[in-house]
């Protein structure tokens, strides 16, 4: 006995199945080919040829020229779009409409036939102008703009990224590129720079990052990075202070590092770092004495924590540290109760009693916008407190 099962399809289901089969039979095979590396090289070549670009930026104090294509900049950055294409339109005051008296109304009615003829002539002239060649709009002409916010190397890397979609991040220009990306609304580049920060802060690069922070400290991205750099300096204090590149930092940055309570460095290493920096400064400023220069750092060194034999063998013979400081340090080591703590660490006593401290000026989230210590300047001067 045979059993036959019959399935009935509704009209909608039948039409859907037939439509899907027809679409599968009609759809051709597809193949996608991408060559982004070739495109990036071509766009890099385009930005390197001034005759192919329509905007030139004069960047930095030296006004170094950097060329670009306006359409590419506008497509990638809304900030550049407004800068290059949206010129401010001047507001014009509307003149009040004159009151028409009876004589003017009469003249207007009597001249209507003549005005009709003139309007017809203007329409023919407008039609003829449409057939004439269209003049190039002013927005398509070559522009020259001045950029003072960023250094030439930084701005050139930004333009390269905008045109090609790739850029080589370096510790020397990282701060500038990150702030330029934030300034021009390139969020993906800013995030890439922020991600590179964690692996880029090393003993070899920390001084270069601090030196570049001085140039871009007014930007918010720099402030967050400075905090990370200083935390690294605190953790690797002895290594950082022994770097040759430490002598290249500005004087007030050196003072701020030596003044940090969190700095994990022994006091003799701090003294050697201050001595090394002062010698380097005197090499380029021969009119300054070494004793006057190093006098700006002595208040941040706790000499009583340096062993007595090191004080007498390494520090005292140099003749750079006032005799009173050496004696107070030795007296404290012999009897701590015999010496006023304020005479041992005067900088820390002043910081505790003042609202504006050396350490607070380092706070990247505070209101300060410069890396400068309280009451200090970039030009070393003699400090009479230690004499």
UniProtKB/TrEMBL annotation:
Residues 366-387 have a biased composition (Low complexity). Pfam families: BACK (PF07707), BTB (PF00651). InterPro entries: BACK, BTB-POZ/Galectin-3-binding, BTB/POZ_dom, SKP1/BTB/POZ_sf. It comes from the Eukaryota. Residues 343-387 are annotated as: Disordered. Residues 53-171 form the BTB domain. PANTHER family: HL07962P-RELATED, SERINE-ENRICHED PROTEIN. This is BTB domain-containing protein. It comes from Parnassius mnemosyne.
